[in-house]
Amino acid sequence: MEHSDEDGALPPCLAIDAGSYQWRIGWTGGDEINAIIDASAQPDLASAFAEVEAAPDEHAVLLSEPVGTSASERIRAVSALFGMGVQALYVSATPLLPLYHFGIDTGIIVDIGERKTTIWPVFEGHPVLGAAAILELGGWHLTRWLAMRMRAIALSSAAAEAPSPVAAAGTGTAPPLSDAWLALSRTTKEAHARVELEGLAGAAAPGAVPGAAKKGGGSKGTAKPAGKGAEAARPPVEITLPDEIDEIGLISRVISLSRDDLARCGEALFQPPADLGAGSAQDGAHPGAPLPPASEGLSEGLGDAIWRVLALCDYSLRGTLLGSVVLVGGGSMLEGLPERLLRELQQRVPNTASGAHEKDEKAKKEKRAKEERAAQHGAQHGTDRGLQRRAGRDLGMR
């Protein structure tokens, strides 16, 4: 359903991307986000127009919806928008929009969101639905992990004898994190967390928050980065705790996060610790919402999941799909993530490529044998041999 002016052009179109952490609103045709609404405010579609001071009845709308949106939820959204008088509406699955933006119609979308990561293969503009995968792993999990780590460093040396907060979370004994800890962790993660190119040894070990708090801040980790040189010499990051964080046992208002701590945070996307998803959310956006259990949903990292999705696709499509892997979502902004993912996928390609080559050569031999048998049969029946030779050359025969 749509309306247009006299020359057939559609009215200005407002794009609304309603994510689980924040809503992003902007005008189509540009690269700028005109407004961001915190999802904790429980915004509605009318508030999206209010943020950009636009009248619904004068505009068209492009609405993105997360993978897994139910038909009833879609109907409610569509009814609400047309009830406000929008002139035209197009609803698209969120992972498809980045492909359209980059002018690509075939590839694999890896959308790392707040609560989950969606991996969706798309061929010629159509999702390969049977091969899509959703990992219960996203930016929130990394934020929570880092908050636990920061608090462990900040607490008194008595924590040396106690289980680490992350390990304790798996048993339900860890005290809930305050909003102040989570806010500080999110800011720190966005500014300093990274993904190491060659990964971390032992990053997936259960309860992987090593060491005890030391006076003046700082800690000593156990996982060793594979990188060397200047990368390995990166200095620790000092974080000053805000006044809102006031817990019994704090020995310093300044804590020090090592390169190992910050790398472990990003490494969780590739080697999720067993305790990464335990517990309940305590942030303002999702008060008390249960997090995914620490089960098979968190045992698979990005590289493994993408390869599993690729294996579910038709053999003839895999090379084309792998040629365009597009990272989107807030969680994809971590430094070093694209380079690490490229490296992981490239390391898997040689064996697959070798198998593909062998299969292709076998198919060619079978085709040649079939054509030769057909040519011999035709010769016996007086078929023109000159035509056979030309046809044979066209088919790659010698």
Topology:
Layout: E1 13-18, E2 22-27, E3 35-38, H1 45-51, E4 60-65, H2 71-83, E5 88-93, H3 96-102, E6 107-112, E7 117-123, E8 126-127, E9 133-135, H4 139-154, H5 165-169, H6 179-192, E10 237-240, E11 254-257, H7 259-267, H8 302-312, H9 318-322, E12 325-328, H10 337-380, H11 385-394
Parallel strand pairs: 1-4, 4-5, 6-12
Antiparallel strand pairs: 1-2, 2-3, 6-7, 7-8, 7-9, 10-11
Helix pairs in contact: 4-6, 4-7
Description:
The structure is a single chain. By secondary structure, this protein is of the alpha/beta class. The protein has three domains: 1-94, Nucleotidyltransferase, domain 5 (2-Layer Sandwich); 139-300, no CATH class; 337-394. It is built from eleven helices and twelve strands. The chain has a five-stranded mixed sheet, with helices on one face. Strands 6, 7, 8, 9 and 12 form a five-stranded mixed sheet that branches. A two-stranded antiparallel ribbon has the order 10-11. The longest helix has 44 residues, at 337-380. The protein is flat, with a radius of gyration of 27 Å. The model is unreliable at 1-5, 157-172, 204-230, 278-297 and 381-398 (pLDDT under 50). This is Actin-like protein. It comes from Chrysochromulina tobinii.
* Through-space gap between termini: 59 Å
Global geometry:
flat
SS element count, helices: 11
Q: Count of DSSP E strands?
A: 12
Measured by DSSP, the beta-strand proportion falls in 5-15%
Q: What profile does the largest beta sheet have?
A: 5 strands, mixed
What helical percentage do the residues reach?
Answer: 25-40%
Structural class: alpha/beta
Q: Output the strand order for the largest sheet.
A: 3-2-1-4-5
Summarize model confidence as the mean pLDDT. 73
User: How many domains make up the coordinates?
Assistant: 3
What is the H/E order?
Answer: EEEHEHEHEEEEHHHEEHHHEHH
Rg, nearest Å: 27 Å
Poorly predicted tracts of residues: 1-5, 157-172, 204-230, 278-297, 381-398
Protein name: Actin-like protein
InterPro entries: Actin, ATPase_NBD
Family: Belongs to the actin family.
